[in-house]
Amino acid sequence: MTRFDLHIHSALSACAENSLSPGRIVERAARAGISVLALTDHNASANVAPTMAAGQRCGVGVIPGLEVMTREEVHVLVFFDDLAALADWQTRVDAALPAAPNRPEVFGEQILYDAADGIVGVDERLRQVGIGMGIDALADEVHARGGVVIPAHVFRCRHSLSSQLGFIDPGAVYDALEVTTAEWRRDGYRLGQRLCGFPVLSGSDTHFLEDVGRSWLEVGASAPTAGALIAAIRSLGG
To answer: Which of 69, 105, 125, 184 sits between 20 and 30 A of 12, alpha carbons compared?
Structure first.
């Protein structure tokens, strides 16, 4: 079985704790038995490669990803199988971001780490905002690059499909939907269930170091990639 968590932020997310470095993330994940995680910083991916390198030392697979805020201010988890595809998507995201500097006194620092947990700089671009791309166009562009699209925390009161759009479109081309860990436990969700026709899963949405490894899901998967995990979840049926 593959124990996974597809929603973890590093210190590159302005709203996350500055101690969330690559080494600390994967070491805590390994201690919790998590074998696959995804790093999903807000509109940013510069800490993914260092986290992948740190993960190799701990035996933890790291899926390249990020959490994009769309034009509608919906948070969407986006995953790719390799760094080249992620870099191409990051270029697209950067082009769609407003040209404004971060305000660390308001949003927090956006810290860049290397694989040895050394601080190598800060990202000075404002990333806690929506990009100039709607969610449907985003899904099409990510799929064209071979990626996976999962709207995040779909029932949350902010930055979700329900809060920003008021509904979940069953005709959309999402690969799955994410609910919060609290909702997963409270409502008794199980892998294999569907929500509005989409496979449903949960991620920790870690923003603090102590949250790494506190929640996870398990599924049989042939490879440590987002696509393999989604395929394994779909195979469980309804």
So the answer is: 184
